[in-house]
Amino acid sequence: MIETIIGVSTAIIGAASTLAAIWLKHYLERKKHSECIIDKTIQEDTQIIERLEELKEEVQADRISIFSFHNGGEYYSGKSMQKLSCSYEVVQAGVARTQLELQNIPVSACLTTLQRLMQNKEFHCYDVEKHYPESACKHQLINSGVKSTYQYAIFDLNKKAIGILRADFVLDKEELKDGAYDALRYLAIKLPGYLIKK
To answer: What is the distance of C-alpha 116 from the center of its chain?
Structure first.
């Protein structure tokens, strides 16, 4: 009888030890994986912010932003809610940050400019108050103090629009200087390499 109890106890302890070892191994792998994801995200985001800082200085903009298109859920009708959010932003000293306010914006709020942006791949507006098409986006730009804005569509390799690169001038109306247009276009072409999940 004692031999049976010892045998059963040994089998139970062995099985419990094996299960605990398997659980610990998976727990540590998940923890390591989640830490690696954060580390990788921080590295990738730092590279993007560094490129935006360089561009901000090159074109002398007050604010450079990247907006990303995303699915924001579903309406009761079953139609997908298409939205855009400010995913990255850099500003000159003394210029207010707006990134946290510019989240989950319905695409329908910016249709007039998005149509032009998708057709021409870029949209320039020297005087936002006078020449920007009427929309909720115009209202937001004016409330943020934007005087001039220059926007460039970001497309992936399959020609699918994934975002917008935007250079804003807040302190004064500004016409982009020579080479600034090309610098913005070039970064808009390169950005999918930074933004698309690898």
So the answer is: 21
Q: Which fold has domain 47-195?
A: Beta-Lactamase (3.30.450)
Domain definitions of the chain by residue range: 47-195
Q: Binning pLDDT at 50, 70 and 90, where does residue 22 land?
A: confident
Three-state secondary structure call for residue 166? strand
Report residue 37: phi and psi, to 5°: -65, -45
Structure tokens at 178: 């020579």
The whole-angstrom distance between residue 170's C-alpha and the CA centroid of its chain comes to: 22
Amino acid at 70: H
Q: Tell me how long the chain is.
A: 198
What string of DSSP letters covers 90-150?
EE-TTPPP-GGGS-SEEGGGGHHHHHHHHHHSEEEES-HHHHSPSSHHHHHHHHTT--EEE
User: So what's the pLDDT on residue 72?
Assistant: 76
pLDDT 10s digits, 127-186: 999 999 999 999 999 999 999 999 999 999 889 999 999 999 999 999 998 899 999 999
Which residues, at least 6 apart from 68, have a Cβ–Cβ distance to it below 8 Å?
84, 85, 87, 162, 163, 195
